[in-house]
Amino acid sequence: MADEERGKKCKHTSCDCPAPADSDYCSEYCEDAHKVGINEIGCSCLHDACG
Ligand SMILES: [Zn+2]
Ligand SMILES: [Zn+2]
To answer: What global pTM score does this model have?
Structure first.
């Protein structure tokens, strides 16, 4: 089986991207969006996983 990333996921509500070990978010976009309380139907972080 593939060794999938586990545990960390982007904290932005609309985002399902894996987050890097040194961040709670996959991108600055998600960090900013989460901080200001944006609740999108879909994520706009531009990662393939969220396309
Ligand atoms: Zn995303
Ligand atoms: Zn994200």
So the answer is: 0.74
Which of residues 41 and 14 earns the better pLDDT score? Answer: 14
Q: In which residue are the tokens 């996983």 written?
A: 49
The encoded tokens of residue 48 equal 């393939």
pLDDT in tens, 31-47: 999 999 877 778 889 88
From the CA of 44, the nearest ligand is 1
CA of 1 to the centre of ligand 1 (A): 25
Q: Is 47 exposed, middle or buried (0-12, 13-18, 19+ CB in 10 A)?
A: middle
- Centre of ligand 1 to C-alpha 27, Å, is 8
- Six-digit token string for 9: 């996921």
